Amino acid sequence: MHLTRTFETWCCILTVAALAITGEVLTAGAMRRIGDLDVIRAKSGLPGAIRAVLTSPMFLIGSVAMALNFFALLFTLSVVDVSLAAPATASLTYIGNAVAAKFFLKENVDRRRWLAALFVCAGVFLLSK
Amino acid sequence: MKHTLSPQRYLILLTVLLTASVGDTMLSHGMSQIGAVDFHHLGLLLAALRNPWVIGGIVLLIGFFSSYLTALSWADLTFVMPATAFGYVVVALLSRFWLHEHLSAYRWAGILTIVCAVGFVANGPSRTEHEPTALEVMDSGAGR
User: How many of the other CB atoms lie within 10 Å of CB of A125?
Assistant: First the structure.
């Protein structure tokens, strides 16, 4: 019984984190593909910049993932204590983003960036104490 | 190649962290005035949209999303991430000095840890060189 409850808790937390990572990586990939928004705004104005973002399929899929993440977080908060759910999902998202950015966005995640991700995780946990 | 940021771009990053944290704090303050919302009192959500704190919070969060997307258009995700995390520090400091809440030693340690994380990436390049990614290939030819 206890094991089942623990399994459910971590399934919820991992789902929230996975959706957040998917949303953020797709959004970041879309923004890289679209290019510098400052340049686009200088050339085509604010409407042109908004159109460039809203017509990117990758951005739209990322937004759907972020919306699903929001509802998954609401569900998780209704079954898991917020003192565990909030820092656990935030920390897993930061680490997962660093891993996904390295492998999917091909970012050069050097030692300093890994350390930054780990320190953010540790900091989020300490703040939740 | 090292990408350095102009003062205007540092201002965008500052907007990202301030709008997220102050926006969340304003929403939280507004919703505490509205009271608990459940399935039997969903009308309260409409009432919340008339609360000035909630309206201010929504405006700031729209500002957050716009500045976050702008930052991602010229910086790596792993560069922008610690900036968004710095919002936790701003919320903690707001709760200490504005709402006069007590901050435990653990929370001060958390603040210090996140400040260190930001320090690790702040002086590095905002965008690292890379080959075309699988995601970019997937999106090519569409979305422009």
Answer: 16
